[in-house]
Amino acid sequence: MMHHLPKVVVIGGGTGLPIILRGLRDHNVDITAIVTVADDGGSSGILRDYVNVVPPGDIRNALVALAEMPRIEKDIFQYRFRSTDQFLAGHAIGNLIISALAEMRGGIFEAVQELGMMMKIHGHIYPVANEPLTLNAAFADGRVIRGESEITAAHGQIDHVWVSDGEHHQPEAVPEVIEAIMDADQIVLGPGSLFTSILPNLMIENVGRAVCETKAEVVYICNIMTQKGETDHFTDADHVRVLNKHLGKNFVDTVLVNIQPVPNDYIDFKEWNEISQPVTHDFRTLREMGCRVISSNFLRLRDNGAFHDRDKVVEELINRLHDVHY
User: Fold this and answer.
1) Number of folded domains in the chain?
2) Quick one: 113 and 154 in the same domain?
3) Are 148 and 70 in the same domain?
4) 77 and 47, same structural domain?
């Protein structure tokens, strides 16, 4: 009897996604990254506005995380022109390559598959949709704001978010995304911004439905720190409650929670100006929502910031795969 490689699907964007991908790459698993296409800030936002292409930044970082290229080639792909280079200021070379290939191939999905083969990636990278999407947020004070960067800059309490395209159609993920979710053994959400990295993927209707219907274990890696405005004073249970509310059911099976205290005097809040304070714990409510809670020291302190320890998080993900499937 042949055993297939365990299939792990990681859904997200921002800086958290490539961290988990790099850790999983060293294990004997079949990796698929499903990447948000609602980013509209920085180089990605400028290219999106002028070339009308899916924002490439999160996709670029995922490609590099799974690539088997020599270091110099990765460094070239990631190189960002200096702000004094007026014509190309702030653009990463990889963003330009992805945008060019998307134009050549008539869409981002085919472009990324081709680039993945060129870069010899370990796994699959699927943009969640083949078109740029806009993130929308309704705030507790009644405001409605469009655009991920505008929503983040508003520093307001968000009630709920949704995504839209420019044609007033219901956005849909390509079939490969849905097949990956339904065939997975484990779905990993996070770490990353709750409202602007994780939920933009899940608010595509067929993606959210697939995540609720899949037989895979859904694991949420809870953030270590709250995000200014968006998740101020949130407990770990509050994060999961927001996810469940958006999809209309308790779909998160397991939550990874850091319980190592973050030293008060270590964090540079000027440097890391989007974070507020450590996420507090409410294990009782998590269990009432049907979650298995895995609490441990997942903390890595570096550069006066608080991050997840990649190796410890990935070790737990691999442990869960073995516990559930063997």
Assistant:
1) 2
2) no
3) no
4) yes
Report pLDDT digits (tens) over 182-236: 999 999 998 989 998 999 999 999 999 999 999 999 999 999 999 887 898 899 9
What does the pLDDT read at residue 325?
60
Residue 295: name the closest of 307, 276, 280 by CA.
Answer: 280
Q: Which of 96, 123, 150 is the last residue of a domain?
A: 123
156 shares its domain with 272: yes
> Does the pLDDT at position 37 exceed 50?
yes
Contacting residues for 321 by C-beta, under 8 A, at least 6 apart: 6, 8, 29, 185, 186
Tens digit of each residue's pLDDT (9 = 90 or more) over 132-149: 888 999 999 999 998 888
Whether 95 has a pLDDT exceeding 90, the answer reads no
State yes or no: cis peptide before 171, omega within 30 of 0: no
Find all residues with CB under 8 Å of 45, minimum gap 6, and list them: 39, 55, 149
Q: Tell me if residue 202 falls in helix, strand or coil.
A: helix
**Model pLDDT, residue 182:** 98
- Pair 206, 285 in one domain: yes
In which band, very low, low, confident or very high, does the pLDDT at 156 lie, cut at 50, 70 and 90?
Answer: confident
Decide: 227 and 274 in contact? Cβ < 8 Å: yes
Q: Are residues 261 and 229 in the same domain?
A: yes
User: Which among 8, 9, 22, 57 has a CA at the least distance from the CA of 308?
Assistant: 22
Packing angle, helices 57-66 and 42-51, rounded to 10: 120
Cβ contacts of 22 within 8 Å, gap of 6 or more: 65, 66, 310
Q: Is residue 247 over pLDDT 80?
A: yes
Domain assignment of residue 86, given as a range: 39-123
132/111 same-domain check = no
Determine, yes or no, domain membership for 155.
yes
Structural tokens at position 50: 């002028």
Single-letter amino acid code for the residue at 220: Y
- When computed from its CA atoms, the radius of gyration of the chain, rounded to whole angstroms, is 19
* 2 within domain boundaries: no
pLDDT at 83 over 60: yes
Q: What is the CATH number of the domain that holds 140?
A: 3.40.50.10680
Overall average pLDDT of the 174-188 stretch = 97
